[in-house]
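PROTOCOL LOG
Step 1. Enter all chains and additional molecules of the complex.
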Amino acid sequence: NGKRTFVMIKPDGVERGLVGEIVSRFERRGFKLAEARMMRISRETAEEHYAQHKGKPFFGELVDYITSGPVFAMILEGEGAVQLARAMIGATNPANAAPGTIRGDYARSVEANVIHGSDSDESAEREIRRFFGPQA
Ligand code: CMP
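Step 2. Run joint prediction.
Step 3. Record the structure below.
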């Protein structure tokens, strides 16, 4: 189990003023906020980040949405970071996300689902490099 993960509050979460609330949840659970930055994602980076969904009918909308406003990107450190952050985030589709999870409490649709968390240690390292650069 890795010690860090990449988490990003998506444009709907930033727009709705949920950054403080979400950061608090991770801090209260014992994560260390190692890096954090408000940023705009370029279309190029968005297409790379969502490459596994290329060709799916929602790909264009997904890229439009994630580039529609600033996101709040974070590196969270802690034992079993990837797994624990995903458990706190909840299921992709808010219809399946348990109450008490971030998506279960805040997400309104499968697309505008408030937050992203890396799905493996390998993805976490790749996404940290992508969003924070090779030295992070
Ligand atoms: P995430 O897991 O962060 O990254 C892939 C995203 O694709 C996922 O969140 C959803 O927001 C989005 N997604 C998955 N399935 C659909 C769908 N059927 N329609 C629209 N967006 C989707």
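Step 4. Note key features.
The longest helix spans residues 121-132.
The radius of gyration is 14 Å.
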